[in-house]
Amino acid sequence: MDNLFIALFEILSFGAIVVLVVLGLGIIASMMGIFNFAQGEFVLLGAYVTYVAHRIGLPVAVGMVAAPFAVGALGFVLERLVVRRFYAAPIVAMLGTYALGLIIRESVRGLIGGLYISIPEPIGGSLNLGTLHFSMWRFVIVVITALVMAGSYVLLARTSFGLRIRASLENPALARASGISTDRIYSVTFAFGAALAGLAGALIVPVFSLFADLGIRFLIQGFVAVMVGGVGSFAGPVAGAGVIGTLSAALPWVMSPVVADVLVFVLAITFIKFRPQGLVSGRGI
Amino acid sequence: MTEALPSVALAAPGGRRMALPVIEAAVLAILALAPLVLQDYLTVYATRVLILCLFALSFDLVWGYAGIMSFGQSLFFGSAGYGVALIARDLDIASIAVVIPAGVLIGFVGAMLLGGFLLLGRHPSSVIFVSLGTMTGAYAADRLARGWYYLGGQNGIPSIQSMNIGTYELSEGPVFYYLALAILVAVYMLCRFLVRSQFGLALAGLRENEQRIAFFGYKVQHLKAIIFTLSGAIAGLAGSLYAFHEGFVWPNMLGVVMSTQVVLYVLFGGAGTLIGAVIGTVVIEAVSFWLSNSYQDIWPIILGVLLLLVIMFRPAGLVSLVLSERERVGSFGRPGRGGGDGTA
Lengths: 285, 344
What we know:
heterodimer, A: 74% helix, globular, B: two-stranded antiparallel sheet
């Protein structure tokens, strides 16, 4: 019975990690219609900022707070300089962001070398419930994910800023005619997506440790999750992330981790093949 | 666009009409003469570049001609490499008459299965789905190879025996170089014939405007699956040569790293022209050889920046510096006018 609870907690916490990574990707893909292949590297960058803060002697938590702002700011600049040229051509956007990701990944690789750097958890210890012990940090990740998810939802669905984002998505021409600067909206949305990825990277780095190819894995996982969930809505990517995260965490309990990892992707691709619209096929919030 | 007005464009006299054959001949001459001036260890390096050119051609066919974004081309390259390495290790067969066809077959079957699954079916597949599916395939294969003891795990399969032709042992050096060159030229001519046939015209149409080609009555998905399978076979050919040339195979050959590499070659050189793929590979590999001693750490970053600049400002790649857009796209068919079709 205890093992079951521990397994459930593992699954929940890993699902939360995937949701966190996917949220930014999903928002950019759904709200802007481009697939950002640099998103995995934004995650990496968030992890890297945390590492830098740790190395210069600041508490890890400070790095984690700084990471989303740093990555968000970079996302804003990149959108202004590069990504905005690609809105007319989604395929070129894919290649362009892929190149951006390559630059970031190789820069980080140049800075840290081929090492795996471990970073301590800012809140260590374990959470004890009776005879059960849970990792405190993973519990914190679950809580933060829930907060971020709720916050993003409220931002997009309940505020006038969210309304403007959705308007720019639905009908850019009409949005511009109504006095909304779609240019600025796109920049901010992209920066927001990047910031979420940065936050995700900062929070998960104690769990996964920092290495240059950290992003690739999450990129593929994130994309698969977005497509399983369905592009175009808020609920879609979150649902997809939940499914992929749960499977990724649950399957290794019954088979070898490598096979489980591959099997999740195969199942997901097969699912998308036969249901291209994903779990949640609607648009909007 | 010039292809919208074929008769006008064909009638226009152009001094640069013949640029493509000239470039092709020049590249061939350089490649044919290279071993005469290069030192031995450079010839070995150049052989590897030729094999990578072959690999780049396979990606150029799917992306440059049919508009299928395959981030998983290395899957066929690597699995053919692993396949022939296993044949050499476990069956002790390294005859060129066996291993090269085996590599081609592995690439062909692999691409047929993956391409059939991703591209065919009731719902037409979106570009993003195909690119994600191929990328996932490569990633998954990489993971499996790393974790599978039979395939050597992280280390791959070291010290594969040399390929042999009859009783002659083919080791790296000028002979291997010219063999690779001969294969590259043969495959290049085959591809050239293919992309300038009616089939190639339909493919180019697919890349430019898929819906219109569908309205013309072509079975778009079948065309895509065919070219994908074919390119898989070429990647398999390249992979088996690569395995024997390097003498070992390792998981990176299967994974996203190698796929990224081939995307770089082709986009840099110029997707949509066969010679662009070759030029891109040669230029990138040559420069990386030069820089790898002194600037090893920042070279990948420079590559990324170059790629980004090319995508932003020169989407047609290096080749477009000397090749006109009209010639790059190519002219097709036989309009029956005097001198109307010099380049096709």
